[in-house]
Structures are given as structure tokens and as C-alpha cells.
Amino acid sequence: MQSEEQSFLRGNKPYSPVLPADFSNMKKLTNIPNLTELTYRSIKEQLLDGTLVEGTRLTEEQLANQLGISKSPVREALNRLEAEGLISIESRRGAYVREFSIKEVNDLYELREVLELHSIATTEITERLLSEMAESIKRTKKFLAAGDKLKHIEEDLRFHSMIASATGNTEFCRIFENIQQKSLLCRYRTYHLSGSTAPTGHGKIYQALKLHDRDGAKLAMQDHIRFVKNRLLESLKTIPSLSLVR
């Protein structure tokens, strides 16, 4: 009998066997994500690659049918995505892809700037951190050249997170990661607006930290964040379909 995990991975709907089967000699699978995790990853990937656009309604039944699973893991995955700020769940409207107003984007990036500058001020500058930053910049260039939007966004998150992690402040990192997650949809939108400038922006931050010039790194980080924010705000103001102010 197929498990729901196997059904999910193969893209089939669950089925019931006609004859009993003997599973006594079957080895247990190890390091396989549970069904909720698989469901979460699948929906999140469609959020980030633009398949599910802002305002799209997300029903448990429709998603369960699409993935060939029960509604329970879908419900858990949606709750997790809501906690990350990627979707909204309302009593009458149900679940839908989060819509960002101009004010929300501005508020989010203002807070992000404060956190990013704190990262620069308190991070421990080590050879390991500098090496990881340099490798991240190389990967970013590769993903941009390949047009791999999802991996580029993930690498952008990784670059900023590694600086925050090097502060050694667990509570700060928790708050930082929360804001990182909430800005994911904005990062997707800014890919075409400013994605190509990421290696340059990250490179300036890296070079300043390499020289232990925290003030220079702060300025580079501030310029980087504000450039992305301003490009995004400009697009929201000039393209009606992206403003989504209700």
C-alpha cells in the first residue's frame, strides 16, 4: 500500500489495495520529510515562483486534490505559511496569497534596514564568515546568469542570514528570520527590478567587512536595502495591478 508520502511524491491520488500485502521485509525510509513538510514546500515554491499570485484564494480542498493528499497536511501547511506572513487567513474570505500595500512594503523595509544595520554592527567578522560571503556572491552570479529566480532568492536570504547568524544573538536571529520570511514575496517581485544588482551590493558589503570597516559596511548595506525598496515602491505606484491597495 502506498503511503501518503509516496502518493504525494509520485503525483498520484491515494488508493486502497484490493489484496492484503506483507510489509514485514520492507525497510523503513530515513530522512524523508513528513507530508506536511512536503505540502508546505510545494505551496511555498509556487508562491515564490509566481505561480500563485497575490490575492489568489487557497482552498484546502482544491490544494488537497491537486496534490493528491488529505486536507489535514494542507491545513497545517497553510497555518505555517500564515505564521511566516506569506498568506493571510480570514474567517469569511478564507486563505489567500498575501497582498502588500505601499505602506506595508515601506514599513517592512524600514524595519529590515534597522535589523540589517544591527547585524553589521554586531556580527563577528571571521575568516569563515568572509569565505561564506564570498562563495554566496559567486552563487548569486551563477543563478542570475541561469535565470534561476527561486535559487537566487534563496541565496539572497542566505547571504543576509549568515551575517545575522554571526552575531551569536539567538533572539535577534529569530526576529531577523521572521522579517526575512515576510519579505519573501517582495523579494520575488524585486527580482526583475533589482536582482541584477545583488552581486554588486553584496560585494560592497563583503569588501568593507573584509577590511573590518563596519561604518563602510553599514553604508553599503543601507544603500543596498534602500535601492531595492525604492525600486519596489516605484513599481507599486506606477503599475496599478501591483499596488493592491484595497
Looking at CATH, which topology of the largest domain would you report? Four Helix Bundle (Hemerythrin (Met), subunit A)
CATH superfamily placement of the largest domain: GntR ligand-binding domain-like
The outline comes out as globular
Radius of gyration: 21 Å
Query: Secondary-structure element order, as H and E?
Result: HHEHHEEHHHHHHHH
In terms of per-residue confidence, which ranges show pLDDT below 50 for 5 or more consecutive residues? Answer: 13-32, 241-246
Q: How many domains, in number, for the residues?
A: 2
* Count of helical stretches: 12
Mean pLDDT: 82
Q: How many β-strand runs?
A: 3
Arrangement of strands in the largest sheet? 1-3-2
Helix content: 55-70%
Report the structural category.
mainly alpha
The CATH class designation of the largest domain is: Mainly Alpha
CATH architecture of the largest domain: Up-down Bundle
Strand content: under 5%
Distance between the termini: 49 Å
Largest sheet composition:
3 strands, antiparallel
Q: Quick gist of this model?
A:
With 246 residues, the protein is mainly alpha-helical.
Your description of this structure?
By secondary structure, the chain is mostly helical. The chain folds into two domains: 94 residues, Arc Repressor Mutant, subunit A (Orthogonal Bundle); 142 residues, GntR ligand-binding domain-like (Four Helix Bundle (Hemerythrin (Met), subunit A), Up-down Bundle), CATH 1.20.120.530. It contains twelve helices and three strands; from the N terminus they run H-H-E-H-H-E-E-H-H-H-H-H-H-H-H. A hairpin with a 3-residue loop joins strand 2 and strand 3. Helix 5 packs across helix 7 and helix 7 crosses helix 9.
